[in-house]
């Protein structure tokens, strides 16, 4: 027993890394990046105003369904309610993930003990490769301690990206996240407008969504859905100085 007291236990992720998988882009996004960039695409953020799982997101999931499993963290509670579920998809749909602290806690469990985390998704077989993680929708997250928003919740977004980066290194999976464009916050969620702005010298730098700039800059590719002449298309976006 004295020997056991001196044994230190480390997460398996400290010693094992998986070969990385990369996002297979559908035709709608192919012209937004070079072939070299696409071959190394591990982090993608989509800005669009679809409440339901969009056709683009479903294509991104379908493109890798035959090669492994995709974990969909269903914050919007719409993916898991579809009559025809995505083949090869695993759904995490829990009240514990509708706030940023609970989401981070689940992702940390996935990093420290993947099987325990996946059991919460009603998975009982683990003979598969987790190829990707989809988080839909970050704009629906509830935030704590609203009066200290900038101090507490912006730092939590940094923590969120840190654990996503660790998961990519450990499991090799790609990461796709989604949020709403400005119209969402300027309309039914108007009370959030000022809180999402990040002030810098010379003005406010922001992407066309209200997620922290530090989080957005960690993405390999950020795309935004636009409608012109009644036709929807996606454009690559970056920070805009105002």
Automatic annotation (TrEMBL):
Q: Quote a single Gene Ontology cellular component term.
A: Shu complex
Q: Which InterPro entries match?
A: P-loop_NTPase, Psy3
State if RNA-binding is listed as a keyword: no
The transmembrane residues are 90-111
Pfam families in the cross-refs: PSY3
Q: Which GO annotations describe the biological process of this protein? A: recombinational repair
Q: Which CDD domains did the record assign?
A: Psy3
Q: Which key words tag this protein in UniProt?
A: Membrane, Transmembrane, Transmembrane helix
Q: What is this protein called?
A: Psy3p
Native source species: Saccharomyces cerevisiae x Saccharomyces kudriavzevii (strain VIN7) (Yeast)
């Amino acid at each position: 027993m004295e020997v056991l007291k001196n044994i230190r236990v480390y997460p398996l992720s400290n010693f094992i890394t998986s070969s990385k998988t990369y996002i297979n882009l559908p035709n709608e996004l192919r012209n937004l990046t070079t072939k070299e960039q696409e071959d190394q695409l591990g982090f993608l953020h989509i800005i669009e105003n679809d409440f339901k799982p969009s056709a683009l997101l479903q294509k991104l999931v379908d493109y890798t369904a035959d090669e492994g499993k995709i974990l969909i963290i269903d914050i919007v509670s719409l993916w898991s309610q579809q009559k025809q579920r995505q083949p090869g998809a695993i759904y995490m749909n829990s009240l514990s993930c509708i706030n940023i602290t609970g989401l981070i806690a689940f992702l940390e469990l996935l990093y420290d003990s993947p099987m325990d985390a996946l059991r919460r998704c009603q998975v009982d077989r683990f003979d598969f490769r987790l190829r990707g993680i989809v988080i839909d929708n970050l704009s629906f997250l509830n935030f704590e301690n609203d009066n200290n928003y900038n101090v507490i919740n912006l730092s939590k977004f940094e923590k969120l990206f840190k654990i996503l980066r660790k998961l990519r290194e450990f499991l090799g999976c790609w990461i796709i996240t989604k949020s709403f464009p400005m119209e969402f916050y300027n309309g039914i969620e108007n009370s959030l407008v000022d809180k999402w702005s990040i002030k810098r010298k010379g003005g406010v730098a922001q992407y066309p969504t209200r997620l922290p700039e530090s989080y957005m800059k960690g993405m390999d590719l950020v795309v935004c859905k636009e409608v012109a002449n009644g036709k929807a298309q996606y454009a690559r976006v970056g920070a805009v100085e105002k």
